[in-house]
Amino acid sequence: MALNPSGAISLGGATSGQSINLELGKSATAQASLNDADVRGLAGVASGQISMPGDFWGKSSASNLQNGGFWYKYNGSLFAHSNTVSPTGTVSGDNAISGTARFYPNATSYGSDKGIVYGGRAPAYVGTVNYITNTGSCGGDNNLGLPAKAGAPGCSFGPSRAQGAFIGGFAPPSTTTYVTFSNTGSVSTTGSYSGTATGYGSGGPYGVDKGVVQYGTSPNINIARFVTNTGSIGGDTATSNSVRSQSQTAGFNGSDACVMMGGYVPNPSGGFRTVYNIITNTGSIGSDTSMGSFGRRLGGGCEYGGDKGIIGFGTTQNPGVAQSNSVNYVTNTGSVGGVAAGAGTGGSSMASVGYGV
Fold first, then answer.
1. What are phi and psi of 189, to 5 degrees?
2. 276-290: b (≥16 Cβ within 10 Å) or e
3. How many helices (H) does the chain have, and how many strands (E)?
């Protein structure tokens, strides 16, 4: 859904395409003003005067990312390269990128069409940040004074998914610290959330403007944590799904929902997980569903093509392909396909995020 490209626009009202409230997922009669943070986010005007109706023409609270990518990689050695995903789902070969080669970084989108990579091990724990442009170029290292840690799952939130968050992580041990980024990529807030300390979980979008992180080590858990469209981080939400860590997540259906796949529990508790879970646009977490393929952990997942998802790379259960470059495609209805051939050097422990609209 998007606001009309021309004509009347109003803060409230029940007319789709005209009502800012409806576009932001609010009721038609909800109280709103042009100075509200979510309204400014939708207009793309962080401060100063907003022009009605022109600043809202064609704006959408959904972010339909067209391209995706896997950034940095481990395969016995650390690699500073990417494998990008085209709008049709084609995975590229290895591309050399800037920044320190490392493993266990995480990523989230920001600014509606760009990405942030944070943390990892090189092999020491780092708090490095790298910015990915809306054309897929990965910039050099930035030291923003953030904690050094790895495996901090990321998710985006807010109108047009313009802001990002990294929640928890492993320092060691697992932590309750978080950081959020503004729509310009600057650090917005830091702090500690209330609940279980977790690392090596998985995160993604749901409900157009909200985020969720789930699973992780504390030790291995099946807890979910929801992020509101203003960046408020919720407490522990228990699920009945199998416990695991090191899973991977991809959004689909215009980032209305996401799928969390795979993961790992050290033997003899269960080894690789061969299941996935769908999280709907209302935040309902589906039960375990068989992947129908080898289990995978420490891969990556992201959106591509505006409304589809891809899970790729990772350490696999297949004894003949320990470090994989294979992929699973997720349709815009959440159907998860079988294993397909990818491209580039097989590997694991990378960051993954969509970019470009």
1. -140, 155
2. bbbbebeeebbebee
3. 2, 25
DSSP labels, 283-316 = -PBPPPEE-SS--EES-EEEEETTTEEEEEEEEE
| Residues counted in the chain | 357
Taken in order 94, 105, 98, 89, is the CA torsion positive or negative?
A: positive
The residue written with tokens 């959408």 in the block is 60
Q: Which long-range contacts (CB under 8 A, 24 or more apart) does 287-292 make?
A: 287/240, 287/241, 288/241, 288/242, 289/336, 291/261, 291/262, 291/328, 291/336, 292/338
3-state SS track over 184-203: CCCEEEEEECCCCCEECCEE
Name the pTM for this structure.
Answer: 0.86
Per-residue tokens: 258: 């996401």
Closest CA to 199 of 164, 145, 154, 142: 154
Residues 232 and 180: their CA atoms lie apart, in Å, by 10
pLDDT digits (tens, 9 = 90+) for 191-221: 999 999 999 999 999 988 899 999 999 888 8
Number of other CB atoms surrounding residue 99 within 10 Å: 21
pLDDT along the chain (357 residues), means of 10: 89 94 87 88 83 89 85 95 96 97 97 95 97 97 98 92 95 96 96 96 91 91 94 94 93 83 77 90 92 84 93 81 88 91 94 93
CATH 2.120.10.80 residue ranges for the chain: 67-355
β-strands 129-132, 114-118: how paired?
antiparallel
Superfamily per CATH, domain 67-355: Kelch-type beta propeller (2.120.10.80)
End-to-end CA distance of the chain: 15
**Residues ≥6 apart with Cβ < 8 Å to 81:** 72, 73, 94, 95, 96, 97, 344, 345
Beta bridge partners of 300: 312
